[in-house]
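Bit of a strange request maybe. I'm writing a small parser for structure token strings and I need a real example to test against, not something I typed by hand. Could someone generate the tokens for this chain?
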Amino acid sequence: MAIDRKPIMRAAKLFTASLVLIAIIAAITVVRTWGRTEIQVDIHQNKKLIHLSTFAEPPQFAIWLEDPVTKDLKTVFVTHRVAAGDWEGKANVPVALPQWFRIFRGNEKTPGLSGNVKAPGMAISGATPKEDYFTIRVEVEPESKWICWIEMNLAGDFNDYFPEIDTESHMEDEFSNGQPALLYRAEIVAVENSMFKPELFAQSVWNRDTVSIEPVSNGITTAKNVFDTIRISVNKPKPKLINKYRIKDL
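Reply from user aminoacidic:
Good idea to test on real output. This should exercise your parser:
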């Protein structure tokens, strides 16, 4: 009995064509990573400290890059509640990230109110991360220089220096802010395989009509350990057909 080899040949050709197509796509995705770099920020949250705060909610935070030459500022990530000013039914803390509001809302007197972030297409807004680890990546020009800023605030982290109610003045912490927001800073050169560790730089405080950047006070206790690990690395992008981390203006 003769065997019709045509279907077998067609299947073989189709299989070969599929392999060739897969190889071409793989080659394209690899080639697209050449000459490109990404800044990656990895953060580990101390859940034990978070659960000790009054609201036991993860901290609000923002990450942005500053061009040290042009002073141009771009938000890389900001928690959704901060970006949208959405505090309804939650810890009412419009002073959560005073410096980010001052820079990107352009309204120093009313942080927390809704408004448009400058260059909204640059920012990645997301739900407040509840897991231990958080990672965000942004593509930049190879060998470019940046200052990476991270501002973090955990609501309700009261202590003896920043009490919920001051026993002497009988003044209440109106926004249940607790310890002030903290600013971390790192100078980055986007060279592949480089590693950087942001340093605690200052505390940012909203005083109703102004935002002040102050040296970290002795009253800051648990707040400086909420992010117990912050690491910045520079890597080649992983091969992908679509790179959602690419920000053209950077």
